[in-house]
From TrEMBL:
Protein name: Multiple sugar transport system substrate-binding protein
The keyword Nucleotide-binding is assigned to this record: no
InterPro entries given in the database record: Bact_solute-bd_prot1, SBP
Pfam family, one: SBP_bac_8
Species this protein is from: Siminovitchia thermophila
Keywords assigned: Sugar transport, Transport
Length: 378
């Protein structure tokens, strides 16, 4: 990010981007809310989808449709542009695309004749994890303490967040309970999997990766954005698995640039110039090969930098393939994130406190339904 900011600043003599780094997306939202309350928003921010929805619901974001209709922007080349829509206006532009991937230790899987790609579902992965735990004495798989992953698991068991008509929260359905309680049992009862939680910022995330790279776990569910930090001589990238006979349904989500209504006009214009620079094919390809995230333009795949990296690391293509062939959009939470909050609280009860999924999800469903009902009544 700093490299691209530096390149942009050198490329023009009118605008300068001054980065302010936060620990993680929740901290970014807190900083934004404080600056908005003080009447001094930044010109530009990057937000994950749930945080974007909260900001969109607060009516503080600048509509970008007029900017995006500039011919040189070529919006038809962009991936997941529809995820920035809110109330028929475009309030966000993809900065990068993430999908949650499965990373596993090639040496450990090969040693025990486990072919990840031939595993039919998550239950077969659990059987492989059990074998690895018995033979190696290490965790067979690590489950991230991450709400998005738990939502992926539930949807990959056939569940959804709400009913088709959008009126009923369904996070207490049989499919959700099955997926989540399977994870809970594998962690707390069978002890063939584990989860790391707590710490500052993304500390728990990086500890999970460290456990895999340092022979304490055989694999983990992570982000496509981990690809820039992993040693692919040791690990391989796999696509997500479904549960039972269900197809995997991982979310492919845009992490978005947002501009703010109350920022000075000149700063808004400078921010948009940076967005255009950053999302151009060469820059988004550079971002992708350095981080592992999915580029935001179809044309990025044809750039020299992307093609050269692909020769060096064929696993770079797996997240893009998953996003295009199996990826589904995130749920658009009409409550401004309150349904997501209840799912997050339930996730902690299941993963950390070992509370049965049925109990945690039924409580979450009741609270989430009340929030949805308020919105529907309006």
């Amino acid at each position: 990010m700093n490299k691209l900011i530096e390149d942009f600043n050198k490329s023009n003599d009118k605008y300068e981007i001054v980065p302010v780094v936060q620990g993680e997306y929740g901290e970014t939202l807190q900083a934004l809310q404080a600056s908005l309350a003080a009447g001094k928003p930044p010109a530009l921010a990057i937000n994950r989808y749930p945080e974007f929805m909260k900001l969109a619901n607060s009516d503080v974001l600048l509509p970008l449709d007029e900017y995006m209709n500039e011919p040189e922007f070529n919006k038809d080349d962009m991936l997941l542009l529809d995820q920035g829509l809110y109330d028929e206006k475009t309030l966000g532009v993809p900065a990068f695309v993430a999908s949650q991937m499965m990373y596993y230790r090639k040496d450990i899987f090969e040693k025990h004749n486990i072919n990840y790609d031939e595993l039919e579902n998550f239950e077969e992965l659990a059987e492989a994890a059990k074998l690895i735990k018995e033979k190696e004495g290490i965790s067979g798989w690590s489950v991230m303490w991450y709400t998005e992953h738990m939502i992926d698991y539930a949807r990959s068991a056939g569940g959804d967040i709400v009913s088709e008509d959008g009126k009923t929260v369904t996070i207490d359905s049989e499919e959700w309970v099955y997926a989540w309680d399977s994870i809970r049992k594998w962690i707390h009862e069978d002890k063939i999997m584990d989860t790391v939680h707590g710490g500052n910022g993304w500390e728990w995330w990086y500890k999970t990766i460290d456990n895999v790279m340092n022979d304490r776990s055989a694999g983990y569910t992570g982000s496509s954005g981990d690809g820039g930090d992993l040693d692919f001589t040791k690990v391989a990238t796999g696509m997500q698995k479904g549960f039972k006979d269900s197809e995997p349904r991982p979310v492919a989500v845009s992490v978005m640039f947002n501009l703010f209504k109350d920022a000075p006009k000149e700063q808004q214009e400078g921010a948009w110039e940076f967005v255009k620079f950053y999302t151009a094919a060469e820059q988004t390809a550079y971002w992708a090969v350095e981080t592992g995230y999915i580029p935001v333009r179809d044309s990025a795949v044809e750039t020299d930098i992307y093609q050269e990296k692909l020769k060096e690391n064929p696993y770079l293509a797996v997240p893009l393939e998953q996003a295009k062939t199996k990826g589904i959009p995130p749920y658009v939470d009409p409550t401004g994130g309150k349904i997501y909050t209840e799912i997050e609280l339930a996730k902690d009860k299941v993963l950390i406190q070992n509370i049965p999924a049925k109990e945690a999800l039924e409580e979450a469903q009741k609270k989430a339904q009340k929030e949805l009902d308020k919105v529907l009544k309006k």
